[in-house]
Amino acid sequence: CAPPLRGVLRMLCVAPLLLSSAPPVRRTAAPQRRTADGGPSPFAAGLHAAHVAADARFRAWPALNDEATRHAVNAGRRYRLHLREEGGTAAGGDPTAALFSGGTLMGRFGLALAARRAVDRKEFFEATEFFARVRSHLKSESGTLVDAAGGHGLVGALAAVFKFEQFGRVQVHDPQRPKSFDAVAAAAAEVAPWAEGRVVHLPARLGEAPLPRGCAVVGVHGCGTLTDRIIDAAAEADARSIALMPCCYSQTAADAPEALRRALGVPLASDVHRTYRLEKLGYTVRW
């Protein structure tokens, strides 16, 4: 995956962000597609470098567009998000505390997570950036959001904090429940009491239990064919929206035309092929 320090930028520039909006019902004939407003991120980065350069800026944390700040907080490093000392402050020279200062809800959530050393820095900045780009497009008929293979459930917790009016329930589907899951949920409840009890963990692999009908589905770092299994499960549940960030393209694109694999490379060919699949299912796909 992404190298240190540049990890979050690599996520935005190279790893595709795929957003789909669903039709009202499943169809066997050619569907009439609904279109979500706007587009969250460039998808074909290798082919549209100029467009990517224009869009590869941090939205969740604009201060990270400054390289010195990005390096100071180690945004792409895989070690725990924490403050330099307990109760660290911006005035004390802690760049992470400085980034989270200002009293915003997102900043207070970052401080609560840092105090608990709940997640890696790289995972935190990737998850918050992903959420910033897709939050306005997430829709559900059932009032449920599924964080597929969500692990610590950070993206789901962000939905519980910031999209509470749309999602009364957030399900994190993952066979493993890491200790960080409870720490993330506690941090969310600390800064947003309305989020308490909204995020639940379901210890099931994709396909073992059906997803709620008409839900919204998110999937971050769906390694290899996991992204395809998320698509399958979401489509089977008639998910109203799907937002994905694929990665690690090992064994993907097996069904994509060989010409695409040769011309575009496996990662981009995989996601072009996924786009055809989703559109055939009646989804409108935004890159």
Key traits:
disordered N terminus; 13% strand; alpha/beta; seven-stranded mixed β-sheet; single chain; 287 residues; 11 helices
Write the layout of secondary structure elements.
Layout: H1 7-13, E1 18-21, H2 49-55, H3 67-72, H4 95-99, H5 105-116, H6 121-134, E2 144-148, H7 154-162, E3 169-173, H8 179-191, E4 199-202, E5 216-223, H9 226-236, E6 241-247, H10 258-264, H11 266-280, E7 284-286
Parallel strand pairs: 2-3, 2-5, 3-4, 5-6
Antiparallel strand pairs: 1-6, 1-7
Helix pairs in contact: 5-8, 6-7, 7-8, 10-11
Indicate the mean pLDDT. Answer: 82
What is the helix fraction of residues, given as a range? 25-40%
Overall structural class, as computed from helix and strand content, comes to alpha/beta
Low-pLDDT runs: 1-16, 24-54
Oligomer: single chain
Going across the major beta sheet, what is the strand order?
4-3-2-5-6-1-7
Measure the end-to-end span.
20 Å
Order of helices and strands: HEHHHHHEHEHEEHEHHE
The description of the largest β-sheet is: 7 strands, mixed
**What's the total count of β strands?**
7
The coarse silhouette is: globular
Q: Into which percentage range does the β-strand content fall?
A: 5-15%
Instruction: Please compute the radius of gyration using only Cα atoms.
Output: 19 Å
Question: Can you describe this structure in just a few lines?
Answer:
This protein is α/β, with parallel strands linked by helices and 287 residues long. Helices cover 37% and strands 13% of the residues.
